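Researcher: Let's do a round of design. I'm pasting the structure tokens now; please hold your answer until I've finished.
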């Protein structure tokens, strides 16, 4: 397990140093979309998102905006995607990558339902 984590850390650091600007933000968007495409929540995406957000503030902010964008579409989202989104958000909040204030837009979504 330690070996896998060290490989993931090296890959994240290499990815961050190799990408710039919009391309760097696109990594988080693709990660969130891949997570939501899974049949059930895969913790790998949570670990990867947590690692990326820990090493780069721009990734952390982009992750928060991506989650907010997904909350806006909750009324028309498949239940499978919602379960994956809940797993990702739960993982990021539990690992202290995202603050609980990241869930603030949830109260606004309740008014839409």
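Researcher: That's everything. Go ahead.
Model: Designed sequence:
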């Amino acid at each position: 397990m330690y070996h896998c984590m060290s490989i993931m850390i090296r890959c994240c650091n290499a990815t961050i140093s190799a990408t710039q600007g919009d391309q760097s933000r696109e990594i988080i968007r693709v990660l969130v979309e891949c997570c939501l495409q899974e049949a059930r929540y895969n913790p790998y995406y949570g670990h990867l998102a947590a690692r990326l957000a820990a090493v780069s503030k721009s990734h952390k902010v982009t992750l928060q905006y991506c989650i907010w964008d997904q909350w806006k579409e909750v009324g028309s989202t498949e239940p499978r995607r919602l379960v994956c989104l809940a797993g990702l958000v739960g993982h990021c909040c539990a690992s202290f990558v995202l603050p609980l204030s990241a869930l603030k837009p949830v109260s606004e979504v309740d008014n839409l339902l």
